[in-house]
Amino acid sequence: FDLAPGDDYRGTGLRFPDNFVLGSATASYQIEGAAREDGRGPSIWDTFSHTPGRVWNGDTGDVADDHYHRLDEDLDLMADLGLHAYRFSIAWPRIQPTGTGPANQAGLDFYSRLVDGLLVRGIRPIATLYHWDLPQALEDAGGWTNRATSEAFGDYAAIVGAALGDRVATWTTLNEPWCSAYLGYGSGAHAPGRTEPASALAAVHHLNLAHGLGLQALRSVVTAQTEYSVTLNLHVFRGFGDGAEEAVRQTDGLANRVFLQPMLEGSYPADVLADTASVTDWSFVRDGDARTICQPLDVLGVNYYSTTGVRLWDGVSPRQTDDGHKDAGGSPWPGADRVEFLRMPGPYTAMGWNIEPAGLEELLVSVSRRYPSLPLMVTENGAAFDDEVVEDPTRPTGVAVHDDDRIDYLRRHLTACHRALERGVDLRGYLVWSLLDNFEWGYGYSRRFGIVRVDYDTLERIPKDSARWFAELARTSRIPAEPLHAR
Ligand code: PNW
């Protein structure tokens, strides 16, 4: 694909610093399978995916990539690719089947084997405590609308920290609380599938609080010298028309500042509280919460895929709502009733998300200008495309997967990272989403983000051309030339 003229992000040969971390990321529910084994309790994603009509084709994570049973094979794959780091998440319902109470040793053992397997292969373990698989029992008691869930998260963090805290290199509390709150409780596109604007904002706060309580708990039990972080999917907004600034202010408040400001400055943005006053009075925020949420962070994880176009609705024309999210009935933007979401110019990935590497560079620069002493890491970036699968007897698997468009996407976004480094951003690394094709939430298995293909009939792993390309990147710390198969 080609971007607009002048938009040159083909940084072939650019070199990253020696300590720049190049790795990949996954999440528990998306790859593990073994949904009912070794004492794992049900999560909201089990319930959601087993509810007809919620996920494409009725797909579930019951088997997924069967990573739970193929751990050693997948660890060897990571070693073959030369990954410097691997970001994974821990399934809360494997550790506490109902979200509270004593630890399930079999669950801890699985992650302990994973961490040990990474360390013997020289791969840094980056562990996320919560990548959306909330124990169903906690949802039954209100889920993220209930303060008790934040408190339970602190207990869970203490259990996992005590078990793995001698070996994990980086702890991440939450992955993308924006998705958990607004897609889970606002739009209904994600589990638990609720469409309640006030609940979405209560969820925002209780996720923020869980982050703070989780960090406090981790720091009280972890013994090793480690880093503490959180991963946010910060949005890059493009404003259009009269009132562009106002549309950006409102959406930036809901998507970015409502997480960044409490976590890094210890307060909620007053304009967001005012914008959402007709939705909720925020009485779930108690004295002292903002200070609890604001715990020291060693690195901020940033997930970036695309940009979002907004403008103020004129109140007359048909309302535009294409914000790139699956339409599940509710709005993921509580209180932003006057904002329209515009389909941005292409090119697009198979998610329908527009490709704009400049957005990543701008995002990294703007966050680091706002928080100059805070190191950043790109904890997810990548793309779904329709991969071309061809027989190729020269490959170990007998099959080659040509995905030049994914290589091109990665090249351009890595170039954006390099430009951010040149502009003084303290960027520590880049993790590609994802190691494997996997359960893409509401889209089931219909969207493939992996640099390694998974054959869902045989569960065989087949490295795509992008995996070979990424391995070359990880080996040399240089952005490789053309797709390697073309040479
Ligand atoms: C992130 N949206 O999810 C997640 O962290 C991954 O688990 C996921 O597979 C990946 O990005 C690709 O989607 C998102 O609707 C899901 O804007 C949805 C949205 C953004 C991120």
Structure characterization notes:
There is one protein chain. This protein is α/β, with parallel strands linked by helices. The protein has helices at residues 28-31, 44-49, 71-81, 92-95, 105-120, 136-140, 147-164, 177-187, 197-221, 244-265, 270-275, 289-293, 357-370, 404-422, 465-476, and strands at 21-25, 85-89, 124-130, 170-175, 227-232, 237-239, 299-303, 308-312, 339-342, 376-380, 388-391, 399-402, 427-433, 452-454, 461-463. The strands form 4 sheets. An 8-stranded parallel beta barrel has the order 1-2-3-4-5-7-10-13, surrounded by 4 helices. A hairpin with a 6-residue loop joins strand 14 (452-454) and strand 15 (461-463). Helix 7 (147-164) runs parallel beside helix 9 (197-221), helix 9 runs parallel beside helix 10 and helix 13 (357-370) packs parallel to helix 14 (404-422). The chain starts with 20 loop residues before the first strand and ends in an 11-residue tail after the last helix. Bound molecules: 4-nitrophenyl beta-D-glucopyranoside.
Strand-helix topology:
Layout: E1 21-25, H1 28-31, H2 44-49, H3 71-81, E2 85-89, H4 92-95, H5 105-120, E3 124-130, H6 136-140, H7 147-164, E4 170-175, H8 177-187, H9 197-221, E5 227-232, E6 237-239, H10 244-265, H11 270-275, H12 289-293, E7 299-303, E8 308-312, E9 339-342, H13 357-370, E10 376-380, E11 388-391, E12 399-402, H14 404-422, E13 427-433, E14 452-454, E15 461-463, H15 465-476
Parallel strand pairs: 1-2, 1-13, 2-3, 3-4, 4-5, 5-7, 6-8, 7-10, 10-13
Antiparallel strand pairs: 8-9, 11-12, 14-15
Helix pairs in contact: 7-9, 8-9, 9-10, 13-14
Organism: Georgenia daeguensis
Family: Belongs to the glycosyl hydrolase 1 family.
Protein name: Beta-glucosidase
